Amino acid sequence: MRRWLHSQALWGYLFIGPAVLGLLAFVVLPVLFSLVLSFTNWDGSASISFIGLDNFARLFQDVVYLKAMRTTGIYALIAVPLTVAASILVAALLDRRIAGRNVYRTIFFIPSITMPIAIAVVWKWLYNSSTGLINFMLGLVGIDGPSWLTDPNVILWSVIIISVWAGIGSNMVILLAGLQGIPESYYEAARIDGASAVRRFLYITVPMLTPTIFFVTVTSFISSFQVFDLVYIFASSSSSGGGGVLLEATRTAVYSIYQNGFQFFKIGYASAQAWVLFLVILLITLVQLRLQKRWVHYE
């Protein structure tokens, strides 16, 4: 019996071995390596020297990085509430027994698994100032559409709109799972008491769904502070002649890390930026965990 258990354990270790090795090689070691690099001035060359906390001290004097963090914070504070609210609404509507419910769920979910470059191609056409569908529809009601991709005051909103649209699908799936875990007896009792659909939603659905909403909110904030792909596609690759101005308006923390690490080869400085961003995300997550006691109901 003991020999059989030993052989079973051995097979278990063999099965999880590749996953553990992959985790160590591609996650743990790079993270530790970046921590070491954050205390150096390495530029990718053979020479490397330890400079202590100089990179971190420089961060708080770097106007470009501080502005990028500010832009990232604005993006997160706008995009996350809109995405979560829209996801709750869509999930609540698609939790009802309506014709074609599965088709609608698929339609809303597809954007969350679509490649960012494909999303960018479609939305570049939609946002086109002269031939885009959005400005065409606005023109039908007498509204002059803005220059979605060439106006520095508008382009961040353009990215936010796409992020909300693309983020609804994955959140919707999680929220649907939470909705289906709410006992139907609660709704039946509320109907007997004469509660309207709105009151049932506000006083039963939302409170019972708060653990799921909390999870979605936390994960959305974490991902929003790491936004990169849409900024890279829309701003840095702009062919309108105003790419630099547009990049200033949309440069996020991760894009700043990318620039310093892979364009300017300031790898040590970029590593320090990455760790500061990690600490900011960690702090925000801890604050959310602390505040959940005030509004999340687990019963």
UniProtKB/TrEMBL annotation:
Coiled-coil portions: none
Entry keyword set: Cell membrane, Membrane, Transmembrane, Transmembrane helix, Transport
Intracellular or extracellular location(s): Cell membrane
Membrane topology of the entry: Multi-pass membrane protein
CDD domains with a match to the protein in the record: TM_PBP2
Transmembrane portions of the chain: 12-37, 74-94, 106-127, 154-179, 200-222, 272-291
Superkingdom in the source lineage: Bacteria
ABC transmembrane type-1 domain ranges (all copies): 69-288
Main location, first listed in the record: membrane
Record-level GO cellular component terms: plasma membrane
Cross-referenced Pfam families: BPD_transp_1
Biological processes, Gene Ontology terms: transmembrane transport
InterPro entries: ABC_transporter_permease, MetI-like, MetI-like_sf
SUPFAM superfamilies named in the record: MalF N-terminal region-like, MetI-like
Stated family: Belongs to the binding-protein-dependent transport system permease family.
Name this polypeptide is given: Sugar ABC transporter permease
Organism this protein belongs to: Paenibacillus antri
